[in-house]
Design goal:
The chain is mostly beta strands and about 90 residues long. It has one domain (about 10-85): Immunoglobulins (Immunoglobulin-like). It is about 0% helix and about 55% strand. The chain has strands at about 10-15, 20-25, 35, 40-45, 60, 65-75, 80-85. The strands form two sheets. Strands 4-1-6-7 form a four-stranded antiparallel β-sheet, with no helix packed on it. Strands 3-2-5 form a three-stranded antiparallel β-sheet, with no helix packed on it. The protein starts with 7 loop residues before the first strand and ends with a strand.
Length: about 90
């Protein structure tokens, strides 16, 4: 995600899907994890000219192509992408 505007709060969302389960880290060390089947969101502060990666760990439900849909929105702009991810054995 890249910001060319002023300082913004950006909401990044991974849409829920039957094709995968989200992995949620429940402690700072990363030793506790739980599966979830719902939309995940993270809010990030973004400075002008700054690029950031956002990680949403997932576990695919099956082999083959799965749909991934991610959206980013702020008070001045929004963007979304939907891609097919090939899961192989």
């Amino acid at each position: 995600m890249f910001n060319c505007f002023c300082c913004l709060q950006v909401l990044v969302t991974l849409e829920k899907s039957e094709d995968f389960r989200n992995i949620i880290i429940t402690d700072a060390v990363g030793t506790q994890q739980k599966d979830a089947l719902h939309t995940l969101a993270k809010t990030l502060p973004k400075q002008p000219g700054e690029a950031t990666s956002v990680y949403f760990p997932i576990v695919p439900a099956e082999i083959g192509k799965i749909d991934i849909s991610v959206k980013a929105q702020s008070s001045v702009a929004a963007h979304g992408v939907k891609r097919k991810l090939l899961v192989e054995k």
